[in-house]
Amino acid sequence: MEVNDLITFATVARHASITRAARELHTVQSNVTNRVKSLEEEVGLPLFERHSRGVALTSAGMRLLPYAARAVALLQEAAKA
């Protein structure tokens, strides 16, 4: 798993929106969508349900989110050390 994919996944989950996640990550929506799709392909399951007003985590996404959050937090901690 790529760290940037996990960061993107966690950001999309927090905002429940690819558009808002792209804004926070200073990138375009297509990059966010591609990172999420890449992670979904690697996991082999959909992580989000897409709908007209944004996205919602699937059960697989809910299971992955705590691990992604911990990985991102550990990387930030390591960078500070």
Helical percentage: over 70%
**Alpha-carbon distance between the termini?**
23 Å
Rg (C-alpha, Å): 12 Å
DSSP summary, beta strand count: 2
Order of helix and strand elements from N to C terminus: HHHEEH
Which overall shape is indicated by the principal axes computed on the Cα atoms? Answer: globular
- Main structural class: mainly alpha
Q: Which strand order spans the largest sheet, edge to edge or round the barrel? A: 1-2
* Arithmetic mean of pLDDT: 95
Number of helices: 4
Unreliable residue stretches: none
Sheet with most strands: 2 strands, antiparallel
Q: What percent of residues are in strands?
A: 5-15%
Keyword list:
single chain, 81 residues, mainly alpha, two-stranded antiparallel sheet, 2 strands, globular
Lay out the secondary structure:
Layout: H1 3-15, H2 18-25, H3 29-43, E1 48-51, E2 54-57, H4 59-80
Helix pairs in contact: 1-2, 1-3, 1-4, 2-3
What can you tell me about this protein's structure?
This protein has 81 residues and is mainly alpha-helical. 72% of the residues lie in helices and 10% in strands. The protein has a two-stranded antiparallel ribbon. It is globular, with a radius of gyration of 12 Å. It starts with a helix and ends with a helix.
Summarize the entry for a quick read.
By secondary structure, this protein is mainly alpha-helical. The protein is built from 4 helices and 2 strands; from the N terminus they run αααββα.
